Amino acid sequence: MKRSLLVALLFVLVLVCVVLAALCARASGLTLGGAAPTVRRGLDYAKSPHIVVDTLNLTHWLHGADRKSFALTPTLIADTIDRTAPALLVRHTGRVMYVLKDRESQFNDEAAREVYKQAAERNGVYVYVAERYPDPPKGVAPSAEHSARGRDDFFVAMLAHRWRCAVLTEDRLRDFDRFRATIQPFHVYEFAFWRATPHREFVRPESSAYARMKKPRMVRYAGYFPDPGR
Predict the structure, then answer these.
(1) DSSP 24
(2) In angstroms, rounded to a whole number, what is the distance separating the alpha carbons of residues 226 and 64?
(3) Is-contact 212 196, C-beta < 8 A?
(4) Which of 37, 80, 86, 196 has its C-alpha lying 20 to 30 A from 68's C-alpha?
């Protein structure tokens, strides 16, 4: 009789342990049995330590409030970085990444790149310049669509996907679904504040590697800066 009670007690204890283990696994997001455990992750990209900045859009927002005409020169863009980097670095302790492109009417020269390099060093940030090729490699056919000029927006999405973070912009990226079909191959100079020479990256938007890339999570300027029109 005593032996039967002991066996029954041990059975109950084992059953309780199994139930408790299952409850703990569920609470931690693990699944038991079969292949290796998997973790369910609900990442909020807006809370990432990193941030990607749509720099030309930010420059228009910042300098357009005075309702005076202005040209998007390297000096003006660098001024935008100088004025906004401190606030971004307070909120984001990882990589603060400013993305822009060369003009459609002319190619960048070394003098322009030097301005961006110094802005990166001066502010402790990363500056990425998406540039056209003078003689682009074979890719999609040239297009007159507005989306064809969105190489900086495409690279913004690439960085947001790569670093699992949000994009700071007022742009809605309505052309996003047309980027891969219309943007010709381009190259990007990355100016890192800690590196003496830039890193160069070559991008072919039509590549199948980007087929599953989605429109990035976007956050607005109001969450970071006072309204420049006030």
Answers:
(1) H
(2) 14
(3) no
(4) 86
Distance separating alpha carbons of residues 46 and 104, to the nearest angstrom = 31
Q: Sort residue 29 into left (φ over 0), alpha (ψ -120 to 50) or beta.
A: left
Q: How many CB atoms neighbour CB 62 within 10 A?
A: 17
At 104-140, the pLDDT tens digits run 889 999 999 999 999 999 999 999 999 999 988 888 8
Which amino acid makes up residue 127? V
| Owner of token pair 């943007």 | 183
Euclidean distance between CA atoms 165 and 159, whole angstroms: 8
- The pTM of this model reads 0.80
Structure tokens given for 22: 């299952």
Cα distance between residue 116 and residue 226, in whole Å: 25
